[in-house]
Specification:
- The protein has a six-stranded antiparallel sheet, with helices on both faces. A four-stranded antiparallel sheet has the order 1-2-3-4. Strands 7-9-8 form a three-stranded antiparallel sheet, with helices on both faces.
- The chain has 13 helices and 15 strands.
- The relative contact order is 0.14.
- The chain is an alpha+beta fold and 473 residues long.
């Protein structure tokens, strides 16, 4: 009996220890490293891309960060204004991660073993802008607004009410920075929060995915990419027998529909521990990370919202373009410069690969131009940039979302089945912290809302559309 009692005691002790071990965060080191890199990138871009003050950065950009390092008064971080770079970390806060502003690109995060002496090895884009003065060039190519062109079918009182609804939220975690409403091609409402103006670049987060899809669509229209052809590149790890890799069945359509079937590394509370977080914030190659996932579902059968799915499509775009220079200049030459988005920076990892799943910095007006391109059916001032077929693809529900409300298309979000208070033909970009471009063809309207929401966030773009459309007669 005594031996039995001892055995039971040992069993419960071991069981308790096993339970404790199962709750241990084995990725804590990754989380700390990523936290420091996240803060370095947000501080660097806030200061040197957005032109904000350190006080504004800590009050708003870093409100999103759990337990930021230091305060506005100092801490284990360094701001090198001469080099336009930031380092975060130290003896009590973990590995030092650095980010540096690069001309034409924005801030690039460096690997943990790099320091400020390595900044010159990071990518730059030295491409002159088209020669015209935006201040005197009429909207939408420029920024000159003629009030005589304003449409007359507007309930201005209702529009002002929608603006108040947008800026004066019931939650302090919903922080609206800007609101633009475009109707019949003209800006009919434009408003900014204190400390922000029409030249302030803010991170798009996942609204970048919709921009990426537009560039990819141009290559599909040109026949240089095919929606239903396999992606056609090598996967990682590179092992013997890779000729029989089941991932070779994944098509461009699958990844744009967020249904690649690859293991979802940004889910299950791991988005700031593994996966794309290591490329976003810690200097890992975004291309290598995207290709290093195992297939565990049949492609096209299950919706998993994954940053790396977008980056696989972007890598296919890179391969179709053929060389690094063409690839680096393509967003500007194919899209941004052609529709007046001259305040937009598409950022890369340290290897020069676009992180088009999140890291684009732009203004509210540039996003309004982007939305207007779609509202106009892909044409811009008499020139077709994207086909109507491509627009139809991005706004067609991904088959894998049929049981989820048909809420996602090809890197754009759709009005879910359970909403009947906004037109079903509306579609939208969506980025973390409240970055929205809502396109409403039935009302000839585009709505842009930029935010720095944090905490539970919760700002709803379809509610915003409902409120704005009360003003459109």
């Amino acid at each position: 009996m005594k031996k039995f009692a001892i055995s039971i005691a040992i069993f419960f002790t071991c069981t308790s220890q096993a339970q404790q071990l199962s709750n241990y965060d084995y990725f804590l080191g990754n989380r700390i490293m990523i936290r420091n890199g996240l803060q370095a990138v947000l501080m660097c871009n806030g200061l040197f891309t957005s032109g904000r003050t350190l006080e504004q950065v800590f009050a708003q950009e870093l409100a999103y960060v759990t337990h930021p390092v230091g305060t506005v008064d100092g801490g284990e971080y360094v701001v090198d204004r001469a080099r336009k770079a930031v380092a975060v970390g130290g003896p009590t806060s973990g590995p030092i991660l650095r980010a540096a502003f690069r001309e034409g690109v924005g801030c690039v995060v460096m690997s943990p073993n790099q320091d400020f002496d390595d900044i010159n090895s990071l990518p730059v884009l030295e491409l002159p802008y088209p020669e015209f003065d935006p201040a005197t060039t009429p909207w939408p190519m420029g920024d000159s607004i003629d009030p005589k062109l304003l449409p007359r079918d507007i309930d201005w009182t209702a529009l002002d009410a929608a603006s108040e609804w947008t800026f004066n939220r019931e939650s302090p975690e919903q922080v609206t920075l800007s609101l633009i409403v475009v109707h019949k091609g003209q800006i009919i409402h434009e408003r900014y929060a204190d400390g922000v103006d029409r030249m302030t670049r803010i991170r798009t987060w996942s609204t970048a995915k919709s921009i990426a899809a537009t560039l990819i669509g141009m290559l599909v229209d040109d026949g240089r990419l095919e929606l239903d052809a396999p992606l056609g590149f090598d996967w990682l790890p590179d092992v013997a027998g890779h000729d029989n890799d089941p991932r070779d069945e994944i098509t461009l359509r699958h990844v744009l529909n967020m249904s690649s079937g690859l293991y979802p590394v940004d889910s299950f509370n791991m988005e700031y521990a593994t996966g794309s977080g290591l490329a976003y914030w810690a200097g890992l190659s975004s291309v290598d990370g995207a290709r290093r996932r195992a297939l565990f579902r049949e492609p096209g059968t299950h919706f998993d919202y994954e940053n790396y799915d977008t980056l696989l499509a972007v890598y296919a775009m890179k391969r179709a373009l053929g060389d690094q220079k063409t690839y680096a200049e393509f967003p500007r030459t194919a899209l941004f410069d052609r529709i007046g988005m001259r305040n937009t920076l598409a950022s890369t990892d340290r290897f020069g690969d676009f992180i088009f799943s999140s890291q684009v910095y732009t203004t509210a007006r540039d996003l309004a131009r982007f939305g207007l391109l779609y509202l106009q059916g892909g044409a811009w001032q008499g020139e077709r940039l994207i086909s109507k077929d491509w627009i139809e693809f991005v706004r067609t529900p991904a088959p894998a979302t049929a049981d989820l409300g048909n809420h996602y298309g090809g890197q754009f979000w759709l009005v879910p089945d359970d909403r009947d208070d906004v037109p079903k033909t509306a579609y939208s970009t969506a980025g973390n912290r409240g970055q929205y471009v809502v396109i409403i063809p039935s009302h000839d309207t585009v709505i842009v809302r930029r935010g720095l929401d944090h905490g539970k966030q919760g700002f709803n773009r379809w509610d915003l559309a409902r409120e704005v459309l009360k003003a459109i007669k």
